[in-house]
Structures are given as structure tokens and as C-alpha cells.
Design a protein that fits this description.
By secondary structure, the chain is an alpha/beta fold. 42% of the residues lie in helices and 18% in strands. The protein has 2 domains: 201 residues, inorganic pyrophosphatase (n-terminal core) (Alpha-Beta Complex); 103 residues, Diaminopimelate Epimerase, Chain A, domain 1 (Roll). Strands 6-7-8-9-11-10 form a 6-stranded mixed sheet, sandwiched between helices.
């Protein structure tokens, strides 16, 4: 029998798990994947699981697997900030859920741990595009401005690494990246000592330079839509570029569409930073769509549905 840690491969999932295991270390098997690969709970072998901890993956997308584990008597601890759908009522489920737009899973774990690994919660919040909240939490640690900027850079780079259709798109597989984090109680030490950080920073700089060179496909006073090509660099840059654009124009909603080799688009949507609501509702109108109020996505939009998406995008944030 084994314990399992199941987590999103983005900055929030990584930092949530890292906080938890710094304070509550266990020997566990890891199940993760690229950021958009969220139907992860079905990979847990029910007959081999002693317990399962889930971090930063939507309960709604994992409902059947969650119920199967609970019905088999496997206790499940669940931390998440995405739309959960119907939450099972079961004594084996310990659920820490909060869908407010100013919350991420790293902050939920931070509250659960009473701030005992808070610097990593700051990194996770920065990675999840919650700059204002992350800075407020960082100030409680007595960090100076350059240190806070370094944590922001780390959060962005960890999150950037999670985007891609497959592990092959990523610079580092999320489970390998988590193992790189494990020795470090202080994220500033990770920044200064770990070669993986430099590798992510270099890749991020190159990919973002390519994205910034593109012009919007559609833009008005309240909306901006950019189309990226079918390329690994574009899939890696898509979400982080969406975050960057969102903060640069906080009154606008943003959509980044990345072309897929099989046809259609992979989509990242950001609600206006000034009014961070509606992204999840927009994306759930389309098959494979989901996310949270401020940031959401669609894993596959057929080319024929582009006009329908553009109209829905404009209407959702009018």
C-alpha cells in the first residue's frame, strides 16, 4: 500500500505540495503532469492506495475517480480553488476549497499550515498571477523589495514550465521539478543554488521574446486576442504571456489562442485584472473548458468555433 500526492504541474500545485511536505513529510508516490492535464485522480490505483492528497486540480473533472477512492475506503485530503461541481459528502473526504478570485491553492495550504512555509506560498501566488495578494503576504515575512521580485520571478518561471500539451513540451517534467524543490526550505536558496532555475529563466526569456513580437488578431478598448503558432515555445509561453498582458492592461480581458497540430486551438483566458470574474463561466460554455473566475482555458476549440468563441469572449467581458 502507498500514499499518493496528486498535484497540478504548475507553480501553484508545486508550491502547495512543497509547503505541505516541508511541514508534514511523508514517503509518497507522485502523480502529476502539464498544467492542463487535470484528470489525474484516475491514475491512482484504488487497490494500492493507503491515502491520497490532491492539490490544485478541479474536483469537478475528477469526480468519478474521487468517488471510487472514497467508496473503497481510501481517505482523501483535497486542496483546491477551482469550481468543484457537486462535493461528495463522505467521512473519508477532508476538503479545503475556496473559489474566491484572490485565493490560490498555495494560500489554502498556507492557511492550513498556519504560515509555517509561507515564503513558498508567496511563490505559488505569484505564479498564479495573484500579484497584489502575493506582495501583501510577502510583506508579512519582512522581505525587502528585491527579494520579493526574486520570488515573483521564481513563481512566473515555475508556472511557465507547466504549460504544454505533453511532458515533451516542458523544460522539466513537473515531478522532476518538484524533486529539485524538495531540499529547499527557503525559495531564495533555490534561486541562488539550483541550476534548474537558470534553465527555466533562460527558456522563459527566449519564448516570451517570440510571443511579444506577435500582433493581436483582435483588439478593442476592452478585449485583446492573440493567436500563437503551433510550436512548443508557443505552448510553453501561452499562459504566462496571457498573465503578462493582463497586468499590462488591467481593464482589458485577454485570450491567447495557440494553434494545434491536429487543428483548432488551445486557449488561455484572463478576465480583466480590475474585475477578475467570468473567465471560468466563459470557458465552461465550450467542451474541454474550465478554470477559475480570473483565469481559465479551453483545451481544444475547433477552428469552426472560432467566431462563436470570439463573440462569447466579447460578450462575457463587455
Amino acid at each position: 500500500m502507498s500514499r499518493y500526492d496528486v498535484f497540478n504541474g504548475d507553480a501553484d500545485g508545486l508550491c502547495a505540495l512543497h509547503q505541505l511536505r516541508l511541514i508534514e513529510p511523508i514517503e509518497s508516490r507522485l502523480i502529476t503532469g502539464p498544467k492542463r492535464e487535470i484528470d489525474l485522480l484516475a491514475r491512482v490505483p484504488v487497490d494500492q492506495a493507503e491515502s491520497v492528497t490532491v492539490l490544485d486540480i478541479a474536483m469537478e473533472k475528477n469526480a468519478a475517480a474521487l468517488c471510487a477512492l472514497l467508496e473503497a475506503g481510501v481517505p482523501v485530503t483535497y486542496f483546491d480553488h477551482h469550481f468543484p461541481g457537486e462535493i461528495p459528502r463522505h467521512p473519508g473526504l477532508s476538503a479545503y476549497l475556496d473559489m474566491r478570485p484572490e485565493i490560490c491553492t498555495s494560500l489554502l495550504v498556507d492557511a492550513f499550515l498556519a504560515g509555517r512555509a509561507r515564503a513558498w506560498a508567496v511563490v505559488g501566488a505569484f505564479g498564479d498571477n495573484l500579484d497584489h495578494v502575493a506582495r501583501q503576504v510577502a510583506e508579512s515575512l519582512g522581505l525587502d523589495a528585491p527579494e520579493i521580485e526574486r520570488l515573483r520571478e521564481l513563481g512566473i518561471c515555475l508556472n511557465y514550465n507547466g504549460y504544454g500539451l505533453s511532458i515533451e513540451d516542458l523544460h522539466l517534467a513537473p515531478d522532476a521539478l518538484y524533486r529539485c524543490l524538495q531540499p529547499y526550505t527557503n525559495p531564495l536558496d533555490f534561486i541562488n543554488e539550483e541550476t534548474a532555475f537558470a534553465r527555466l529563466c533562460d527558456g522563459y526569456a527566449d519564448d516570451m521574446a517570440r510571443a511579444r513580437a506577435l500582433r493581436p488578431e483582435y483588439e478593442d478598448a476592452k478585449h485583446r486576442l492573440v493567436i500563437l503558432p503551433d510550436a512548443s515555445w508557443a505552448r510553453r509561453a501561452s499562459g504566462t504571456y496571457a498573465n503578462e498582458l493582463a497586468w499590462a492592461a488591467p481593464e482589458k480581458a485577454h485570450a491567447i489562442l495557440t494553434r494545434l497540430s491536429t487543428g483548432g486551438f488551445l486557449i488561455s483566458v484572463r478576465a480583466p485584472v480590475a474585475r477578475p470574474r467570468g473567465a471560468d463561466q466563459l470557458c465552461r460554455r465550450f467542451p474541454t473548458g474550465g478554470g477559475r473566475a480570473g483565469a481559465a482555458g479551453i483545451n481544444h476549440l475547433p477552428e469552426a468555433d472560432y467566431d462563436a468563441f470570439l463573440e462569447a469572449f466579447r460578450t462575457a467581458f463587455a
